[in-house]
Amino acid sequence: MLQNRDPAEDPNHPVDTGSWEHRQWRWLPLDDGVTLRYTVAGDPSGAPVLLAHALGNTGATWDRLAAALCARGRRVIVPDQRGHGGSSQPGDYSFGALYADLTALLDTAAPRGADLVGHSMGGHVCWLIAQRQPDRVRRLVIEDTPPPPKDTAAERALRTGRRHSANLLGVVREFGALRDSGQLDGGAVRPIIDELRYADPGWWRALSRVTAETLVVSGGLDSPVPRALLAEVAERVPCARLLAIDAGHYVHERRPELFDPAVLAFLTTPTPRTAPRS
Asked: Hey, which CATH number is domain 7-268, 3.40.50.1820, 3.40.50.740, 3.10.20.30, 3.30.200.210?
């Protein structure tokens, strides 16, 4: 259910959007009837960066990083993805729908392109944008995002892997409080997780189309996403590197003192483009 809007959150309400503390809520109606709630803050002329949260989170998970980006003159865009927070709960939670949502948001809030930061579910959507519309993505940060299996053999191993299943259940249990508060459609959990468990060799091939400089962040040994798998993902992207932080799946929440400086440096420090690997 779409949450009621506070008068202070009126998108036409004149507020100072120069800092994250004075961020402005907006709503974006989409063609399929979904309405996305999103936040915009920072310097209106600053380079835009979009932060995409994971399954079971809301845009509020990025508050610390968003405030730091605003303080550095960036224009920060943070949505509640469909089924989460103040956005609609439509029942369709395919990655195709999630991709269309964030593409429409970029059309509205950053039509000339943006940096993308995505965690888990949000990271997968950011990958899709970078693969399918590479000219729209300047730099890309992917936090502990599980790739789909490369083939049916890998798919079978994933489905029968006890360690993966146990860790995945542990992550899912953390969704309870958000679901009980009405800010998560419980029906979103299984479709999204299941879609990531089906083999998709085309996704792996499409990594070579990513032109953005990319930082792939691993949560280390305590994460349900194997570091070696993320290293293989990074190796297939022409201009990517891997950063491992021992924090588990929620790196930006559990080790912000390591995650935030690394991401800020990556996004804000001018660096020469690295020649694609042959």
From this structure: 3.40.50.1820
